[in-house]
């Protein structure tokens, strides 16, 4: 949720200044993790609510630390951002996610998309558009299979440059989703100008849907708004059948969440969602 990600940054910032030695150690560990290929991508399925079919997967990074096991991204993405390592790790994630997508596609198991999360520093980087181009250059089908998830607050920080970058990326055939929608404070006039294809409703709104009438009408309003702008709507963090049913009734296009499936390693994703 927005609060959690906001807290995350707030939590790491003071630690960076207080104990630079501790941070350095973690930084070195993360550098090594990159060299030793200890980062892994897990894939979480997205489902079309009308058909019940699989539409794609979100790639979510984990660090397979030999000492402690799988480390969730909330613990190390802020450090990668601070140190600039996010550029290299971000490029790795792009290439890896596209390779998985092409593998799924070559096996003709399903025409599903793969979504990759983009960090604030990545989008702000001048080389970002080129990184995307390089990543999709490996195969003529890569662009159509790739979606980037970019948070609303990130786009709003620098609207003009963001729009230019997103436009260039979209012209390559890559689709763009606004992540954690509703947690930022973007004005509606901006939303209609953003070159995006999909809007992901933040989990906090999905939770509030069943706690009172206001929550439900808020989600209903977001879906109507998105559809009036010809955007596809994905609800995040769907955990219950009740939430899924309500979203279906509100004509939400897709759901993602523990109800349909948790993020799993690629082999498991393939066995579970692509082979049957
Ligand atoms: P996000 O993009 O909002 O991803 C959704 C998060 O919600 C994931 O946490 C996912 O595992 C979790 N989730 C999915 N369904 C449910 C559900 O039904 N209930 C609950 N409670 N949670 C659910 P995760 O994997 O820990 O990732 C956290 C954040 O780390 C992501 O939030 C994203 O901002 C960031 N992240 C993950 N992978 C990458 C990456 O490759 N690059 C960048 N830059 N950021 C990443
Ligand atoms: Ca989030
Ligand atoms: Ca995301
Ligand atoms: Ca999200």
Lay out the secondary structure.
Blueprint: H1 2-18, H2 20-35, E1 39-48, E2 54-65, E3 69-71, H3 73-83, H4 86-106, E4 113-117, H5 120-124, H6 128-136, H7 142-145, E5 146-151, H8 152-157, H9 159-171, E6 175-181, H10 188-191, E7 198-201, H11 203-208, H12 213-228, E8 232-235, H13 241-249, E9 254-256, E10 264-265, H14 266-274
Parallel strand pairs: 2-4, 4-5, 5-6, 6-7, 7-8, 8-9
Antiparallel strand pairs: 1-2, 1-9, 1-10, 2-3
Helix pairs in contact: 1-3, 2-3, 4-6, 6-9
The protein binds ligand C2E and calcium ion (3 copies).
One calcium ion (CA) binds near residues 58, 117, 149 and 179.
Protein name: PAS domain S-box-containing protein/diguanylate cyclase (GGDEF)-like protein
Supply the key terms.
single chain, 276 residues, alpha/beta, eight-stranded mixed beta barrel, 10 strands, 53% helix, disordered N terminus, binds ligand C2E, binds calcium ion
Verbal overview:
53% of the residues lie in helices and 20% in strands. With 276 residues, it is an alpha/beta fold. An eight-stranded mixed beta barrel has the order 1-2-4-5-6-7-8-9, surrounded by four helices. Helix 6 (128-136) runs parallel beside helix 9 (159-171). The longest helix has 21 residues, at 86-106. The two termini are 33 Å apart. The model is unreliable at 1-18 (pLDDT under 50). The protein binds ligand C2E and calcium ion (3 copies). Residues 23-276 form the EAL domain.
